[in-house]
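Case study B.
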Amino acid sequence: MISGFVRNGCFEKGVDCYYELVKEGRVRPDFFTYPVVLKACGCLSDGRKIHSWVFKLGYCLDLFVASSLLHMYSRFGFVGDGRRVFDEMSVRDLGTWNAMISGFCQNGKAVEALDVFREMCMEGVKMDSMTVSSILPVCAPLNNLDMGMFAHVYVIKNGLEFDVYVSNALINMYAKFGMLALARSIFDQMMVRDLVSWNSLIAAYEQNSDPIAALGYFVEMKRNGFQPDILTFVSLASIVAQSGDAENSKSVHCCIIKLDLIRGDIFIGNAVVDMYSKLGNIDYAHRVFDGMDNKDVISWNTLITGYAQNGLASEAMEVYKTMRECEMIVPSQGTLVSILPAYSHVGALRQGMKVHGHTVKIGLLSDIYVGTCLIDVYAKCGRLNDAMMLFKQVPRKSSVPWNAIISGHGIHGQGEKSLSLFGEMEEEGVKPDHVTFVSLLSACSHAGLIDQGQQCFKLMQEKYCIQPGLKHFGCIVDLLGRAGHLDMAYDFIKNMPVRPDASVWGALLGACRIHGNVELGALASEHLFEVDVENVGYYVLLSNIYANVGRWEGVDKVRSLVNNRGLKKTPGWSSIEVNNRFGVFYTGNRSHPLSEEIYKELKVLMAKIKNIGYVPDYSFVLQDVEEDEKEQILTSHSERLAIAFGIISTPPKTPIHIFKNLRVCGDCHNATKYISKITEREIVVRDSNRFHHFSNGDCSCGDHW
DNA sequence: TTAGGGTTAG
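Model:
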């Protein structure tokens, strides 16, 4: 009767029936009863109760009963208890071994799964197709390609390649090791393919950054009569995002909605949120997120990352705050990795330190990604010593934390230290990657280390066989340009093997601004506006170049270009942390509760610094307005609002740390020098380009506008 | 009369 219930899916009735049987004492359950009841029980405590009865009755030795117990424990995630049952068994068949292996695999215990597999081989038990398809998925997480290839050879020798599960598992395994040709050849040799085979092949190319090939296989799959399922769409969403194909993102989303896939499934919802945010359409991403019936921690992480990667750090922090208010959601490693870069971005040191404390508490400091994000927070918040201390604590066998600490010293102008860290990295046998060299080259250019920078560029190609990308080229242009070798920088661009992008021309334009080269600046901007017509920051740079040499007709020309092209300046904002609270100020904004006091303080400050020699430089105002209004505009630049707020909110002589999303304007740079003098405060401003340490009327960056 | 074991994801 019990098995009748279970066979018909009425598990609860099966268990009830069993309890009644025992209670009434009418029939004594035997070893035929227990496998069925164990299959039916819906919770761990029922399972444990049954285990103790079985134990008392001595049925644990029965192969069927013991296997069912083992399965029950794995099903509830208590695979360790399953292992204990397994160890006590006197007789095991192949199915028992397979159940133990897959029990560990499905509970994320790859090492234990492999241990059981090895024991099985030692005992001379021959594996079958089920063993192979269980063991293959753990090879990649364990980074054990040898094991995967051993299984593959076994498959060929024993004719198991005709099993569709085995071939699918092989495709997935090789794809995870980036061995696409092998994955593809296994797919090609399959006699019978199912939807999983197609999904696996598509995902293989998608995960190895070949969205075009992946899309081709999707089309072929449809041609072969297969209908896409949830997993196909998860890959498709990523394919569209990788190709930057905003048009098709909506079609993919529409299909998902039409097939009614999005409501019940968190996975596909998360994939769509990720797709829109990677395409820069964060509003859509948020809307999809809001419309999801169920959300898990990954849904939140995806949205936070989306905001952070689209440069909207404050919004990312807002989402994180809301997430922390949800009792159901426990932050994961991924949450920390998504929120910490937002803190780095705006210089939210206290918030970062809070997360640091939390990281120590939950034992995640040994995670290289979390550790590296924290190093980055400390470095970008001006705490290089703390960053260094942390660097010594995190595992550093991979290039990731090294890149962060090298770049950290670079943005503070400590290029020599970056170079010596790179030397240590080489000594410790850690292989640098392309990011290491971007960090190194930019460190060299900020510190004016021209020869060393050029040597690094050579080393990267000759010793490490890394082909330079646009970022590396941009660094070299910056390196040469900043040092005044403008013609060399221009020649370098002309000889580049790839088409220069905006960052390369932008580096040249920036160098022309520093060295006052109007002709080359105009030329660079012509190229620049061809590849990026919308970035107003570059127009401002060009205007500065003209203004500096008094070529007002040039300033007017740039101003009308901006107006004719209907360009709007990216709103400038600055942030500051005072008394553990984080404040953001937008240029010209008067909505802050202390706005009146801030503007009053600024008026006093401006008067004082004018007395000691400050003269406003209106060339930084692109708007076509009267002089007194220009002064008004300069005075309400976001960095000044933040500085004034810092001055009125902290005791005298307290250092002030500001973050600005754009470059600090030349007039603010000059004014801040004077402010640091009269207030006797150290003022640190990190802008989108570098750190500026102001103290006693001077700035460490040495730039002159 | 009883059971257990496999492949794809954000």
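DSSP finds 38 helices and six strands in chain A. The remaining cases will be described in the next quarterly update.
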